[in-house]
TrEMBL record, chain A:
This is ABC transporter ATP-binding protein. Gene3D superfamilies: P-loop containing nucleotide triphosphate hydrolases. Residues 4-248 form the ABC transporter domain. Pfam families: ABC_tran, oligo_HPY. InterPro entries: AAA+_ATPase (IPR003593), ABC_Ni/Peptide_Import (IPR050388), ABC_transporter-like_ATP-bd (IPR003439), Oligopep_ABC_C (IPR013563), P-loop_NTPase (IPR027417). The keyword Kinase does not apply. The keyword Methyltransferase does not apply. It is a peripheral membrane protein. Belongs to the ABC transporter superfamily. Its main location: membrane. It comes from Actinoplanes sandaracinus. It is found in: Cell membrane. Keywords: ATP-binding, Cell inner membrane, Cell membrane, Membrane, Nucleotide-binding, Translocase, Transport. GO terms for molecular function: ATP binding.
UniProtKB/TrEMBL annotation, chain B:
SUPFAM superfamilies: P-loop containing nucleoside triphosphate hydrolases. Keywords: ATP-binding, Nucleotide-binding, Transport. The lineage of its organism: Bacteria, Bacillati, Actinomycetota, Actinomycetes, Micromonosporales. Belongs to the ABC transporter superfamily. The keyword Cell inner membrane does not apply. CDD domains: ABC_NikE_OppD_transporters. Coiled coil: none annotated. It holds the Pfam family ABC_tran. The keyword Magnesium does not apply. Residues 2-220 form the ABC transporter domain. This is ATP-binding cassette domain-containing protein. GO terms for molecular function: ATP binding.
Length: 311, 237
């Protein structure tokens, strides 16, 4: 069953296109990874789900949650969606948590808003903390954010995200600031919760191996567009789009230390200077005239004119 | 180039850094890896003079620049990308005409020169911070998670750039990162920190392939790789 659907989503700011044609669906309980170029619109894509776009953003196309276009939600509907159905976890937990209030206040806020009494809210909060592996919940509830390391605080944010029993979690680089052991624990928690409660997940990361381990499908973005979508376990073997292949080929570790890493020639471009044809044409090693002139439609798993030619 | 001896830092009686020592040779490249909250950033801030140590010594021969973990807080939010670079170049008596070249070096579309920090994505801001640090041409560059928020293709471009700059000018790096494959690629030596202390140190090859300390072993085992299934409770113990 489709939970979330982007259909030809376009977002622009003034005359700058930010998202150019995003079409993607996420099933209930499914995990979809968003990887790709820095500045390509990954954060904007997930933010558009809860209408957290910069002021003045012009949006066309549709984002539907459980079949309803979010553009048609009134203020109350939007608030309800943000506090109940959809939870967000960002890269920097300190930007989300009010620094002067206690962890307990932070965790119980939404429940209290929903009319749950304080004692019940605290009990649920403590339960949620232990579910994400934070021990000694009663002490933690009384602490303030600066007393917790980044890894602990991110687990608090995830506990808060799970408390409202959302149907969808939007995770924007939730582990970029964490060490790899803490990262492993955090993604294991997300995974476990997803399976247990059938929560859907949109997971943004720059780590392709991490995306492959956490997600069912992976969407690759470049200059405001999704250029390829494929099952996570086939990322390495079946990636066809030249940009995806270039990404896979530029990870450190693909060449011995001391050798130059492979990069994509040319300057990365933001969607604002993208050409009329394929967004990747001017940097693609295989580009032909038609690539520069005509925008490739999505065929099968990728938007590329040369899927048959490029092997 | 840099010698740090027996560094200790307490925040209101709580010990964040406890007896940390390491050195970076001129033109060397030292990685600092370890647990979140183990004191890596605190050490970096002490080295660059932003934080005062409770005790211990830092000897530094030459200029230092730092790229911060969170560039948003270190960039002036009213200054455009171009304005920010122009200021640093002027301050170091360098030619303003280098702005375009610096933007190209870090892979930023020149069209973003007029943008303010809040108009940039996370990785774009990170690249502005890197360009600004490079503009000053320091002898030691401290990079605190400087490439974590970049896609791997731009990251590759920046890592190549750092390798080239080191070969050409002899700049030294203190490279704080969570990414062990980045460590393997750009550093010679590594220091592993846990709970404010150095638990293991040595050449990258040795430490990452034959770790002595239990924490280093767990770190290496947690790196995502094909077939890896994340499991809980690895970080405790
Ligand atoms: N507030 C804003 N005003 C104007 N432009 C913006 C704003 N925020 C982001 N942009 C632009 O929108 C584009 C998409 O940004 P977005 O943050 O979605 O990128 P991203 O794919 O998440 O990148 P990263 O991997 O670096 O986080 C970028 O080119 C960025 O410059
Ligand atoms: N200004 C401060 N006041 C109080 N405690 C602090 C302060 N700055 C840092 N700490 C504490 O010192 C310890 C070390 O923090 P530091 O930021 O150096 O860790 P780190 O190794 O850089 O972690 P990360 O990998 O998460 O960035 C942490 O427990 C942190 O909570
Ligand atoms: Mg982003
Ligand atoms: Mg740090």
């Amino acid at each position: 069953m489709t939970l979330l659907e982007f259909e030809n989503l376009r977002v622009s700011l003034g005359d700058r296109p930010i998202l150019r044609n995003v079409t993607l669906s996420v099933a209930a309980g499914e995990a979809v990874g968003l990887v790709g170029e820095s500045g390509s619109g990954k954060s904007m894509t997930v933010r558009s789900v809860v209408r957290l776009l910069p002021e003045g953003a012009a949006v066309t196309g549709a984002v539907r949650f459980e079949g309803a276009d979010i553009a048609s939600l009134g203020a109350a509907g939007l608030r309800r969606m943000r506090s109940r159905d959809v939870a967000m976890v960002f890269q920097d937990p300190r930007a989300v948590v009010n620094p002067v209030r206690t962890v307990g206040d932070f965790l119980t806020e939404v429940l209290r808003d929903q009319g749950v009494n304080r004692a019940d809210a605290l009990r649920k909060a403590a339960g949620s903390l232990s579910e994400v592996g934070v021990d000694d919940a009663s002490r933690r509830l009384a602490q303030r954010p600066y007393e917790l390391s980044g890894g602990l605080l991110q687990r608090v944010v995830i506990a808060a995200a799970l408390l409202t029993e959302p149907k969808l979690i939007l995770a924007d680089e939730p582990t970029t600031a964490l060490d790899v052991t803490t990262q492993e624990e955090v993604v294991a928690i997300l995974d476990e919760q997803r399976r247990r409660r059938s929560v859907a997940l949109m997971f943004i990361t720059h780590d392709l191996e991490l995306a492959a381990a956490v997600c069912d499908r992976i969407a690759v973005m470049y200059a405001g567009e999704i250029v390829e979508i494929l099952p996570a376990d086939r990322l390495h073997t079946e990636a066809r789009h030249p940009y995806t292949r270039a990404l896979l080929g530029s990870r450190p570790g693909t060449v011995p230390p001391g050798q130059r890493l492979r990069t994509v020639p040319g300057v990365p471009q933001s969607a604002l200077t993208a050409p009329p044809g394929c967004v990747f044409a001017d940097r693609c090693p295989h580009a032909e005239d038609r690539c520069r002139d005509t925008r490739p439609a999505f065929r099968g798993s990728a938007a590329c004119h040369l899927l048959e030619e490029v092997r | 180039m840099l010698e740090v001896r027996d560094l200790r830092k307490e925040f209101k009686g709580v010990v964040a850094v406890d007896g940390v020592s390491f050195r970076v040779a001129a033109g060397g490249s030292l990685a600092v890896v370890g647990e979140s909250g183990s004191g890596k950033t605190t050490c970096a801030r002490i080295v660059t003079g932003l934080t005062k140590a409770t005790s211990g010594t830092v000897v530094l021969n030459g200029s230092v620049q730092m790229v911060f973990q969170d560039p948003y807080q270190s960039l002036d939010r009213r200054q455009t990308v171009r304005g920010c670079l122009a200021e640093v170049l002027a301050h170091h008596r360098k030619d303003r005409s280098r702005i375009g070249e610096l933007l190209d070096l870090v892979g930023l579309d020149r069209a973003l020169g007029e943008a303010l920090p809040r108009h940039l994505s996370g990785g774009q801001r990170q690249r502005v911070a890197i360009a600004r640090a490079l503009a000053a041409e320091p002898r030691l560059l401290v990079l605190d998670e400087a490439v974590a928020a970049l896609d791997v293709s731009i990251q590759a471009q920046i890592l190549n750039l750092l390798v080239d700059a080191r070969a050409a000018t002899g700049v030294a790096y203190l490279f704080i990162t969570h990414d062990l494959s980045v460590v393997r690629h750009v550093c010679e030596d590594v220091v592993v920190m846990s709970r404010g202390r150095v638990v293991e140190a040595g050449p990258v090859e040795r430490v990452l392939h034959r770790p002595d300390h239990e924490y280093t072993r767990r770190l290496v085992a947690s790196v995502p790789r094909p077939g890896w299934v994340p499991s809980r409770a690895v970080s405790r113990g």
